[in-house]
Amino acid sequence: LMDQPIRPAVILAAAIILPALLFIVLVRLETVHRRDALRQDGAVATTIAREQSLRILETGLLALDRAEDALAGLNWAQIQSRRGPIQSELRRIEGAQAGTLAILAAIRPDGRVAVTGGPDQASNADASGFEAVRAAREANRAAVFEAPSRELAAQGAGLVIGRGRAAEGRPYDGTLIAVLRAEAFFSAWGPEGRRPGARFALVRDDG
Fold this sequence. Notes:
By secondary structure, the chain is an alpha+beta fold. The protein has 6 helices and 5 strands.
C-alpha cells in the first residue's frame, strides 16, 4: 500500500502550532528565570537595606544614651537652671550625627518639652502625644519607635525614637526623644531603592 499523502491542513497546522507551543514554553521558562532573579535580587536588597537601617537606629539609640549622660543626676529644676549648657551639649550630640539626627529633646513628666538641641524647637511645647511618652508613663523602659507627626514629617523627620528617663523600677521621670532624618534612610536605601519597582518601609514588630 502506498503511503497516504499528508494533508496540507495538517502541514499548516503543524507549522503554526508547534512553533507556538515552543514559544509558550520558552516564555514560561524566561518568566520563571526572571521571577527567580527578582526574588534573589529582592532578598539581597532587603538584607542590605536592613543592615543600613539598623546602623541608623543604633545612631539614634546612642544619641539617647549621650543625652541621658548629659542629664544624669539632675532633677527638672536643675535641668531648667542649667538649660543653656545642656542645650549646647545636646546640639553637640546632634552636630556629631547631623546627617542622621535631627532633634534631641528632654520631655518633663507633665509632657512639656524642657530642653532641645535644635534652636528652632520651642521649649515648653506639648509633647504628650508621643507614643514614647505614654509608654514611659506606663513604666515601659524599652525604646519606642514611632512615625513622626505630620508637623515633624514636614520638617524632614523620618522616625522618632523615645525612651523613659527613669531607671528600671523607678517612678516615671520624663522622656528622652531622638528624631531621625528621613533623608538618612533614603540615602541608605538609595542604590537598592532605585531598582525598578523597589519599595522599602520600616515595619515594627507589632506590624
